[in-house]
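Hi support team,

I'm filing this because I wasn't sure whether my run with zinc ion finished correctly. The job status page said complete, but I'd like someone to confirm that the output block is well-formed before I use it downstream. Pasting the exact inputs I used:
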Amino acid sequence: MRNNLIAFMPIILLFLATIFFGIWVYRDAKAHGENGLLWLCVVILVPNGLGVVLYLLLVKRDQKKLCPKCGTHNPMGNKHCGSCGEDLDSVRLESDQGSKIWIPALVLLILGILWFIGIVVTTWPQ
Ligand SMILES: [Zn+2]
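And here is everything the job wrote out:
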């Protein structure tokens, strides 16, 4: 019974990671004015976390400036807001908010280490 649990651990872990990244990508995509549901589907349907990688490559690289006055997403090169004309030179990059990107990665790493320790402990010759 114990061995069964160990065998299923990677699957459970992968499942949890998919849910975790799914929620994170959904929220992040919405914050960037992207289609959150679409990206959620990508993360769930593309196996082995490649959906997340895809998201990071396609959306995160596309940095935009958020207008502090009207909330419009402006292209990086814009010096002024395309909607209200607000000066965007002093605006912090939106991607700064994405610096929490290491949190899910850290959680996965910890889970992976715990799983590894679990295997070592439970299969160690008595
Ligand atoms: Zn504006």
